[in-house]
């Protein structure tokens, strides 16, 4: 009884310390931000670094990001796991971590998002679509994802992300070359013409096993669906379990002529 009480008190103290540190970071953050540089300046930086750091390690790439962009950096996280934001937070503690809150997520994904926010040195930014699911249903008809997933992804993912990214100079993704043949040539550093900013894929060369090994070694929060047949996790209506050994993304928009949501194409 006594040790349980102490443990709860300890947990509470750690939570208060965690939340206080995040608030302190947010207060300081504004003073650390410089003006956003022009599209031309950012493009030149991306082109130079993409050659210079073409074979760099994850740490070397992120050291460059932290020095060059500081907190004008955003990390995209699907909440399948929190390896990417953890790796980035080693260089930029409390970095903004964007979660596309489409309104269609599995309960496990929302639970992972909440666990990441309450335990990790990150600042979660929920990126929400212009319309709620109910508003989209009313305007476009129920279950648009089944009739026009391209439009649904455009309105619930691509447009909200593009609007949010306007406040940053670089975004960091967890795209890995192993994900699919479409991603096989993903560079570590790239120019994102569509969003007019630098795009960094520091885990591009990582294998799935390396990802899981890092998560286990560093006690990283993992979506429980990852151990239940979902190596790639998107919105619930568009994600199915895959058989062991299958293409990890085979369960995304299964049966449809669609393999990407439009964020990386
Ligand atoms: S993944 Fe499916 S539900 Fe989610 S935004 Fe795209 S089409 Fe809509």
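Sequence proposed for the structure above (265 residues):
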């Amino acid at each position: 009884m006594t040790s349980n009480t102490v443990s709860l008190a300890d947990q509470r103290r750690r939570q208060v310390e965690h939340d206080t540190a995040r608030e302190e970071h947010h207060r300081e953050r504004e003073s650390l931000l410089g003006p956003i540089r022009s599209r031309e300046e950012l493009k030149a930086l991306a082109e130079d670094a993409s050659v210079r750091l073409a074979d760099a390690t994850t740490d070397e790439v992120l050291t460059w990001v932290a020095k060059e962009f500081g907190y004008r950096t955003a990390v995209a996280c699907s909440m399948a796991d929190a390896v990417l934001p953890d790796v980035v937070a080693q260089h930029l503690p409390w970095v903004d971590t964007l979660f596309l809150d489409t309104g269609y997520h599995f309960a496990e994904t929302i639970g992972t998002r909440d666990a990441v926010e309450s335990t990790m040195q990150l600042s979660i930014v929920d990126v929400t679509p212009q319309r709620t699911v109910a508003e989209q249903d009313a305007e476009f008809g129920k279950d648009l994802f089944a009739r026009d997933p391209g439009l649904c992804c455009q309105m619930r993912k691509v447009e909200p992300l593009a609007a949010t990214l306007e406040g940053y100079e670089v975004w960091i993704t967890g795209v890995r070359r192993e994900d699919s043949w479409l991603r096989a040539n993903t560079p570590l550093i790239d120019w994102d013409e569509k969003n007019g900013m630098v795009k960094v894929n520091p885990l591009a060369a990582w294998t799935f096993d390396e990802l899981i090994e890092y998560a286990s070694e560093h006690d990283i929060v993992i979506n429980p669906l990852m151990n239940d047949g979902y190596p790639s996790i998107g919105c619930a209506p568009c994600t199915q379990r895959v058989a062991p050994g299958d293409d990890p993304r085979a369960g995304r928009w299964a049966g449809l002529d669609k393999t990407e949501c439009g964020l990386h194409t």
